[in-house]
Amino acid sequence: MTSASKFDSIINIPDVEDMKIGKEFIERRKNRRFRANEGTFASPRTNAQKLWQIIDVSKGGLSFRYIPHREDLKNSSELDILTRDTLFSLEKMPFRSVSDSEIADESTSNYPLRRHGVQFGVHTPSQISQLDYFIQNHTFCEV
Fold this sequence. Notes:
By secondary structure, the protein is an alpha+beta fold. The chain contains three helices and ten strands; from the N terminus they run ααβββββββββαβ. Helix content is about 15%, strand content about 40%. The protein has a single domain (about 5-140), classed as Beta Barrel (Thrombin, subunit H). It is globular, with a radius of gyration of 15 Å. The termini are far apart. The strands form two sheets. It has a six-stranded antiparallel barrel with strand order 4-5-6-9-8-7. It has a two-stranded antiparallel sheet with strand order 1-2. The longest helix is centred in the C-terminal third of the chain and has 13 residues, at about 125-135.
């Protein structure tokens, strides 16, 4: 079984083209998304560990904002989720990238920001429990 088919059997997220109807999109997520608190970060496991602010999270995946660099996020297949105070850390969460887009009008930044969406892969019971805890304690409203 390829890694793509492992992911597809867990959560079926259609390609963007499948979701497009005219200029509108149909919401096809199977899990409720929640806005993440300030000070919550995703850190894709690459050669250069960086912390990127989480925008929203669900049991099926998350999105974060990042500053594009030469390193390619597509080469990473695991990420860590943590809080600024380091009291929470979920390590080596498997994922695949499902979206990447420019964030329009981020007037507070001098750098071009992008939004990167990931879908979680097969994870352990401990990771599921930690993710549930994170959603209950480090988010503030449903998106």
